[in-house]
Amino acid sequence: MLSPAELAAVRADFPLLARTLRDDRPLVYLDSGATSQKPDPVLDAEQDFYLQRNAAVHRGAHQLAEEATEAFEGARRLVAGLVGVDTDEIVWTSGATAAINLVAYAMSNATLGRGGEAARRFALQPGDEIVVTEAEHHANLVPWQELAARTGAVLRWFGVDNDGRLRIEDGVITPRTKVVAFTHASNVTGAISPVAEIVRRAREVGALTVLDACQSVPNMPVDLHAFDVDFAAFSAHKMLGPTGAGALYGRRELLAAMPPVTTGGSMVEVVTMSETTYAPPPQRFEAGTQPVAQIIAMGAAAQYLGELGMEGVWAHEQQLAGELLQITDIPGIRVIGPTDTTDRLAVVSFVVDGVHAHDVGQVLDDAGIAVRVGHHCAQPLHRRFGIAATARASASVYTTADEIATFRESLAGVRAFFGQA
Questions:
Q1: How far apart are CA 334 and CA 9, in angstroms?
Q2: Residue 214 annotated in active site
Q3: CA dihedral of 217, 280, 147, 298, whole degrees rounded to 10
Q4: What pairing do the DSSP bridges indicate for beta strands 231-235 and 208-212?
Q5: E strands within 273-387?
Q6: DSSP 8-class letter at 37
Q7: Which of 132, 134, 76, 133 minimizes the C-alpha distance to 104?
Q8: How many angstroms separate the CA atoms of 213 and 218, rounded?
Q9: Tens of pLDDT, residues 119-140
Q10: CB burial of residue 228 (10 Å; 0-12, 13-18, 19+)
Q11: Is residue 36 scored above 90 in pLDDT?
């Protein structure tokens, strides 16, 4: 767990946290599940690239290009190290959404015969099955709906129980299942999925596994090799990094067999007027000019988290989850998701009796407290609980217990403000 001195030092690294809002109210930022704030080392890394070594990577023989390429590939090493994989198993993308779509569209291309014999393991036939969960962010649901529509595959899913935890039932994964895509931790309920059990069931039928690790990578130790998943996606902006960058992890042998999706410069070996041979991974999947500055800054974010120590970050996260869940003591507040700290993140969605989520968010904003309101890109999960929208408070490594106490105090007055108490 982070000591008070360590937490104070962390907060000092985040310049935006020091700003005040209207009426000179201090900012209480509880929307890190949507996007995180950025520490000075990340901001400095991006600026330093533009000030000192701005050049195209993998394309020049001059010193700037060499320095840019080393920083670019150095970021790959840092990100790979954070999540426990090998450097050449990290593919740069524009974010987690693009990473998941890359896998889905590669499977579509394989179904069309692209990639040759090696890619046949990714091909789908009518009646094959794609399994997802009711807890998915749209980014890990809609691409698989599209893949099913293009290939004739059938979409199946695991539901959730009344606490928002996955119900891992027999008969959902079958011998026809070809891919199982699931979240590591829900961006609505904070519930952590039973990764080992899902992967075991997928392995028994030879299905590929795709993990959405957006919420987990910033907040808890993640070892993708130990998880034994085939692919995983996560974004920079949720892990203290910039927008516009993300990563796809893929097993080396799977990336080597997978056909490309986006084609163009930088991902080729030989091009003639009639055909092209493609570079090996990860370059095969990194067509065109990459967001170099943002990727370097993502590497700086990975280094920052690694130096803090993810075990300590996770202990802090669990403490904050307990602080957030104390809102269940406020009359008229209902948490959507687990109400205990077991296997959950400090991501707490809730409804206030008689008050719309957007109105809740406005009252909190007037107090300087930033939360998310809406369906959080998870409409099916909200529909499961019979609600259209929730308010969501989500913490990060820089969040304090005092901030959450301020949030609870303001939340306690919401119903009275609207004449509901």
A1: 34
A2: no
A3: 30
A4: parallel
A5: 276-278, 333-336, 347-352, 369-370, 372-374
A6: -
A7: 132
A8: 9
A9: 999 999 999 999 999 999 999 9
A10: middle
A11: yes
What domains sit in the chain, N to C, each tagged with a CATH number?
4-30+310-418 (3.90.1150.10), 45-306 (3.40.640.10)
Q: Note the pLDDT of residue 412.
A: 98
**What pLDDT digit, counting tens, does each position of 74-122 carry?**
999 999 999 999 999 999 999 999 999 999 999 999 999 999 999 999 9
- 282 preceded by cis ω (within 30°)? yes
| Alpha carbon distance 179, 129 (integer Å) | 7
What pTM value is reported for the model?
0.97
| Token pair for 317 | 């996260």
Active-site choice (330, 377, 387, 401)? 377
Q: Report the alpha-carbon distance of residue 386 to residue 393 in Å, rounded.
A: 20
CB 122 within 8 A of CB 151: no
Contact (Cβ atoms closer than 8 angstroms) between residue 236 and residue 294: yes
